[in-house]
Design brief:
This is ATP-dependent RNA helicase DHX34. The protein is of the alpha/beta class. The protein is about 40% helix and about 15% strand. The strands form 4 sheets. Strands 4-3-5-2-6-7-1-8 form an 8-stranded mixed sheet, sandwiched between helices.
Length: about 750
């Protein structure tokens, strides 16, 4: 044990950052903001938090863009500082935390820190904030920077450290002009750089060009060169950077055939869409006489360190999320990486020993690359950004927010206009969140998904809405490899819906609950159907989180949640980690029970319900048209389905598709000053069920059938149900009684 401790201390002192330890601590003491550029292998992420902890700072928060890196760093620092993980050193990420009242050093994701700032705007619980990997420039990180700049002016005792391997020093120093700066060299072994551009492919650096056809030959040739030049006995694994799962799957299929011929390679992939089990395999040590070949996206540039990498193959490409302003959708677009990313990829080959980096492009093409990556704020829709800023900064106009790099003014105005159209912002000159906006701002989802949750609560189908929202946040519930297995595809046919992934998602979750209820082996069931069970557990956790947020919201009366808890715990409850469950029968029963939703005022009720009432006339036809567009296609991705259906406010149609007895009564009561219901303000919203309208199994619906659907609203003045085209007509009618 003592030998291990001595080896650990020795390795810590050999890190380049150790030579700068005293200078760093002195700068933190004398300055409020420190910018630290620490190259790959310098030890900045693991050592600097420990230096501060040992120097007497007791409330330290370290942020990471991704939760996998957040957890890994916390566990490593806990080990090095000889603390049990979750005691002095801990972490907190979505759905999972390891911390106690004794925790002094906490690793969190950017998103979690931003949520903390919505309730504690001055971050009073922390003495030091360390923002790591700031070069990635995610939206949450840019918002945090702007908020912290204000906090620093109010709290001179707060220390801020900005760290990155490839930081744009000029940009950050201009934003924090009083900040001190220090550079820490990396601990890289020599890396031989080879440019091997494919002769048959002419590469273009115009990002607007169409996606080029992926060529696997250069990668096969490079693996052959490695086999010939470096004996397997010398060890050393290969890391190939590709832009997306499509390219990874295509190359993996070819390489696995080659690997089966000589048994010298293990082909693995690292991607968020893969199962947790598949992702963990990349960190396992390869058997003697065998090399790992890992295909990864840019997640392996900085966030994940894989030991034993000696060879890096860089495609020079990545997929970037961009917003199409014409069609109002997000798209994954193939793009050339920046010089900073290219250098980060090269550095992966020199972490544990001398290495080689093969670039599948020319040196001239490298010189044409942008110095740094395009920030996310300049690529995506800014609606969520505007909503977050107004929620955490006392409704400051996002167009006046102090960004480190201001986004395009047209994009900001476009986002603000859309928020007004969606009734998330009030129709006044100074932007102010509506009641709907205040609820959405507190939900950890995209706006479209959050609206499904709210409307499903209003329409008394909360269980279905929660399942849909939580499932959509998981990207997919199916294991990627299952799409290539004909037996697996055949096994799960009964779960698939012709109306797309949204309905399939609800069926999968419901059947899984059913298996849990009857105490079947759900692990074997999931494997047979190609379902990632860990993501179903995460759906349970997110459903509970969303429900608790609604329950605690001042815009809903807590009494309306009581009927959701009428089921007592069963043995199946104990099988689901950190979550509650209900039988599938209860889920369906909740979908068709008659309930009354209680709001605290008419203004809140009308504001939130008006759109829900209007869509009932149009939704069935819209869904049918959307289905007809995709008829005959083999599949439609979950990403495309949420764009298609969430825009149509899918909650009512889901109600219709999941139960035959879908007639539901929802009401609005006005609450007087004494907290009592006022019966004379009852408004019933009743969708009329016509048995002639076909359900899911019959997709042939005529226009005449669709016109038979009506909206009936109870008028207390007339003391009977009346037919109205929309809520505006109802309000006009109601004025006649006053």
């Amino acid at each position: 044990m003592q030998n291990k401790l001595n080896d650990l201390k020795k390795s810590q002192k050999e890190l380049p950052v150790f030579a700068k330890k005293d200078a760093i601590l002195e700068m933190v003491k004398e300055n409020q903001v420190l910018i630290l550029a620490g190259e790959t292998g310098s030890g900045k992420s693991t050592q600097i938090p420990q230096y501060l902890l040992n120097c007497g700072y007791e409330n330290i928060c370290v942020t990471q863009p991704r939760k996998i890196a957040c957890k890994a760093l916390a566990q490593r620092v806990a080990y090095e500082s000889m603390n049990e993980n979750g005691t002095v050193v801990g972490y907190s990420v979505r759905f999972e935390k390891s911390r106690t009242a004794r925790t002094k050093l906490l690793f969190v994701t950017d998103g979690l820190l931003l949520r903390q700032m919505s309730s504690d705007k001055l971050l009073t619980k922390y003495d030091v904030i360390i923002l790591d990997e700031v070069h990635e420039r995610h939206v949450d990180g840019d918002i945090i920077l702007g908020l912290l700049k204000k906090v620093l002016a109010i709290r001179p005792d707060l220390k801020l450290i900005l760290m990155s391997a490839t930081i744009n020093v000029d940009l950050f120093q201009n934003y924090f002009p009083e900040a001190s700066f220090i550079e820490v060299p990396g601990k890289l072994h020599p890396v031989e750089l080879r440019y091997l551009p494919p002769k048959s492919i002419e590469c273009s650096f115009e990002r607007e060009k169409k996606k080029s056809e992926f060529n696997v030959e250069p990668y096969i040739e490079i693996l052959g060169m490695i086999e010939k030049s470096t004996p397997v006995s010398e060890r050393g694994d290969v890391l190939i950077f590709l832009n997306g799962l499509r390219e990874m799957s295509k190359l993996a299929a070819v390489l696995k055939d080659k690997a089966n011929e000589n048994n010298k390679w293990i082909i693995l992939m690292l991607h968020s869409m893969l199962s947790i089990e598949e992702q963990d395999k990349v960190f396992d040590l390869a058997p003697i006489g065998v090399r790992k070949c890992i295909l990864s996206t840019n997640i392996a540039e900085t966030s994940v360190t894989i030991d034993g990498i000696r060879f890096v193959v860089d495609s020079g490409k990545s997929n970037e999320l961009t917003f199409d302003h014409t069609n109002h959708v997000h798209l994954l677009k193939e793009s050339w990486i920046s010089k900073a990313s290219s250098n980060q990829r090269l550095g992966r080959a020199g972490r544990t020993g001398p290495g080689v980096c093969y670039r599948i492009y020319s040196k001239e093409q490298y010189e044409k690359m942008e110095p740094f990556n395009t920030s996310e704020i300049n690529r995506i829709s800014l609606q969520n950004l505007c909503l977050k800023i107004m929620n955490v900064s006392d409704e400051v106009d996002p167009r006046e927010f102090d960004f480190i790099e201001k986004p395009d003014s047209k994009s900001l105005n476009f986002a603000m206009d859309n928020l007004r159209k969606c009734k998330i912002l009030q129709e006044i000159e100074a932007p102010k969140l509506t009641h709907l906006g205040l609820i959405l701002a507190n939900l950890p989802t995209e706006i479209e998904v959050g609206k499904v949750v709210i409307y499903s609560k209003i329409l008394s189908i909360l269980d279905i809405g929660l399942t849909l929202a939580a499932g959509l946040e998981m990207k997919t519930l199916f294991v990627q490899a299952s799409f290539n297995n004909l037996d697996t595809i055949d096994n799960r046919k009964y779960l698939l819906s012709r109306l797309g992934d949204t309905i399939t998602l609800i069926k999968v979750y419901g059947e899984w609950l059913n298996e849990k209820y009857y105490e079947q082996d759900t692990t074997r069931w999931c494997k047979k159907l190609g379902i990632e069970q860990q993501r179903l557990y995460e759906v349970v956790k997110l459903r509970n989180q969303l429900k608790e947020i609604l329950r605690s919201s001042e815009h809903f009366n807590a009494d309306t949640f009581e009927s959701d808890e009428e089921e007592t715990a069963t043995r199946a409850d104990r099988k689901i980690k950190h979550g509650e469950r209900r039988k599938l029968e209860q889920l369906k029963r909740e979908a068709r029970n008659e309930k009354t939703m209680i709001f605290k005022s008419r203004s809140i009720a009308f504001e939130v319900l008006e759109k829900a009432i209007k869509i009932r006339e149009k939704l069935d036809d819209a869904m049918r048209k959307e289905f007809n567009k995709v008829k005959g296609t083999k599949s439609k991705s979950l990403h495309e389905m949420i764009i298609s259906y969430a825009k149509l406010d899918v909650e009512f149609q889901l109600k219709r598709l999941t139960t035959k007895e879908y007639t539901t009564e929802g009401g609005i009561y006005e609450i007087n000053d004494q907290g009592e219901k006022s019966t004379h303000e009852l408004i019933n919203v009743i969708p009329i069920h016509n048995d002639e309208i076909p359900m899911e199994e019959d997709d042939e619906t005529t226009e005449v059938d669709l016109k038979k659907k009506k909206i009936i609203i109870f008028c207390d003045g007339c003391d009977k149900n009346l037919s109205f085209k929309n809520s505006i007509d109802f309000l006009r009618h109601k004025k006649k009684h006053h």
